[in-house]
Every structure is written in C-alpha cells, then in structure tokens.
Amino acid sequence: MYVRAEYQGRGYGKALLKEVEKKLIKEQVKEITLCAYSPNYFTPGVDLKYKKALLFFEQNGYVRGMEAVSMKKDLFTYHMPQKTLEMIEHLKEEGIRFHTYSLSYMEKLLAFVKQEFDAGWVRNILQAIRDGEAEGTILIAEDKENHVIGYCMRKIDGNDARFGPIGVKESVRSKGIGGILFDLQMREMQKRGIYYAYFLWTHGDAIRFYERHGMSVYRTYQLYRKSI
C-alpha cells in the first residue's frame, strides 16, 4: 500500500488498511501477515528505511516478527572456488553427482521437494517445467542410488538474475552440497551472460551461508503479523 506524500498524515492510509482488514475478516482470516511467501510479494516485509511505515503498522496493531534481508552478488569476475572444485571431486568418490535438470528427474525432484520442503517450492518447479525453462534454471544433486538429495533454481519470477530457492536433504547438509549447488549455479548464470545474482528473502543462519559465498545484504525488512 502507498499514499502519495502530499496526502500523508490525513488518515487515508489508516482508512485503507481498516477497509482491507474488514474484507479479510469477512473471509474468515484469523491472521494478517506482512511477509507473504515468494513469489507473491513486492518485498517480504517493510523496508527498515521506511521509518514512517514501521510506525504506521505498529500503531495499527501489527506486531514485529523477525527481520529478513535481500542479498546480491556481482558475477562479472566470478571464478569457481578451488575448494568447491575439490569438494565436487571428493563427493564423486561417495557417488554424489551434480547435474542440470532433465525430464527424467521430474518425478524424483518433485517428490523430494514435497517431502523435504513445502508446496511453494513445488509450485516454482512446476512453473519452470510448464514454461519450458527447467533445463536451463534447475540444478540437481543425487546420491549413488540416484536419489535426489538437493537442488537449486533461479528465475522463479521471470527475472534471469533471481536466485533460489535452494534446498538439501537434512541428513546430508554437513557435506557442503548446498555450497556446491550455489557455486555451480553462479557459474551457469555467468556462462549465460548473467552478471548479477540476487534474491529477495532470507534470514538467520542462511545469511551467513550466503555471506561465505560472496553475497552481500542490500535491503533489510521488518516482518509483521496481526491477529484479527
């Protein structure tokens, strides 16, 4: 929501918000969130630079939750880290391999994501398949028994440079598979002439993961919820 600067302070924002809340109550909504999950947001919360907006929502009963960040990485001078190349070779000895998506992986990938993550991620994959873009946007890790144990993708909102989501089977997360998938995706993006990678949402320990791989924060958001 937005109110033009010359009309701010007159109660128009509050009136709009109350009207939306009334409509949601009629729909039997129990909680309103200002952090709707990807891809259905412009931003995943309220940018901290909008001080008046933060105060506005708090004055209207919205409670602070966690903070989230957007991150980015310059790919102009990207080189695959030597450590990553060595890890790939080491994991080969365990039978773990990395591939671009192909149709033969569809059922295994969808089953893996449904079991390990959530429906939103399944939706992203299905959309890429329907658009004929899965082969160029999804990377897969599989074990020696040909089971999918990790994947990552990009372009979930149609923007070539948008990275994510990325996920690895919980039982093998200590092997560095996520970092390898990330680096492989960066290399694939660079090879395709994409020289900038970004995503709109992460928080907590994941921030440190991305910082270790050269990404930096460019926006920070406050998430809010309100019971109605």
Which structural traits does this protein have?
228 residues, alpha+beta, 5-stranded antiparallel beta sheet
> Count of DSSP helices?
8
Helix content: 25-40%
Sum up the overall morphology in one term.
elongated
Q: How many strands in all?
A: 9
Report the end-to-end length measured between terminal Cα atoms: 19 Å
Give the averaged pLDDT, no decimals.
Answer: 94
Describe the largest sheet: 5 strands, antiparallel
**Protein structure class:** alpha+beta
**SSE pattern:** HEEHEHEHHHEEEHEHE
Which regions contain 5 or more consecutive residues with pLDDT less than 50? none
Radius of gyration based on Cα positions: 20 Å
Strand proportion: 25-35%
What does this structure look like?
This protein is an alpha+beta fold. The chain has eight helices and nine strands. The strands form two sheets. Strands 1, 2, 3, 8 and 9 form a five-stranded antiparallel β-sheet that branches. A four-stranded antiparallel β-sheet has the order 4-5-6-7. The longest helix has 15 residues. The chain is elongated. The protein starts with 11 loop residues before the first helix and ends with a strand. The relative contact order is 0.21.
